[in-house]
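How a chain folds remains the central question behind the approach discussed here. The record that follows shows the chain in one-letter code together with its fold in C-alpha cell form:
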Amino acid sequence: MSDYDFTYEVPSNFEQRIIQFLQQLGQNETACVQAFQRCHYEYQDIGFAYYAGIKGDNWNKRAIDFTVEGNIADITMLKNIKSKLKSAVEKAIKPNESGFLIHDIFFIEEIVVTKNITMPLSDEARLNIDIENAEKVLADLVQISERACIGSVKFSDSEDEINDYYRDMFFAKDYHEIKDQTRHGISASGKSAGRVDILLTKQGKEIAILECLKLDCINANYIDEHISKAITNYNALGTATFILAYVSCDNFETFWFKYSEHIRNYGFPIQVKKAFNLLTSPNASIRIATQILSRDGYNFPVYYVAVKLK
C-alpha cells in the first residue's frame, strides 16, 4: 500500500475516539462530552480536499462536512467549543488512514413535536426553516419566470392574465393549495378584507404571499402601495413574502438600479432586521434581492423579484 492509498471510510470506533479526545478538553469536559453524546451527527464527502480549499498535506485526500443535530442547549454548548470539537473530530477520523479531512462543522437545532404540532426549538431555527422553504418557492418562481421570458408565453397588457399564468404554473409544480385573489388581511383603506394576488399554502399553513405589480418605470407611489399591502395589510402571520414586478422597459439594468435604490430608501412601517441585499442574477431577464423584516418581534423573509417580460 502506498502513502496515498486511503480507505475513504471513517474508523469503526470513530464516535468513541471523538469522545476520548473531548474528554481531554479540560474545563467542563464532562458536560461537553454528555452534550455530544445526546446529539446525532452525520458527515458528507464534498470532494477532494484541494478543491475544497483545505491546505497542507491534502494530496488525494477528501474533504468532509460534519453536521451535529441536537436540542438547543446541547447545540449551544457545542457551538461554544466548535474549534475544539473540530480538532477532536480531525484527530478521531485518522486522516492518514481514512484519507478524510474535516472541512467544516455545522450545527442544527432539533425540532420538537408537541401535540402533533411541529415546533422549532428557537426563533432562529424557525426562521431558517422558513427561509429554506421560501428559497424552494423562489427557485420555482425563477423557473416559471424564465419560461415567460423566453417568449413561449404571450401576454396582453393585463396584470391579471400574467397572475393567472403564474398561478397555473405553480399548480403544475404541485402547489395544490394555491389561492388567487383571496380575501386575506385588510384592504389598503382598512375597511374591508384585502385581496392578495397569490397565496401559497401547504397542509393548511401559509408558506408564501406573492404581491404582483406591472411596471415600465419607477412609479414610487404605486410601488410603495404594493409593498405596504404585502408586508402589513396582507401579512398578519409574518409569512415569507415575494414582491414580483412584471417589467417592460428598454434598459432593464437601469430600471433595476433605480428600483433597488427606491426600496433601500423606503420607510418601512415595521422593523428591518436585515438590510436589502442583492442576490446573484440567475439570467439577464431576472433580478432578485432579499431582506429580513420583523413584525412584532417575528422575523420573516421578503424577496424582491423583477422579471423583464418585454
Summary: Confidence is low (pLDDT under 50) at residues 181-193.
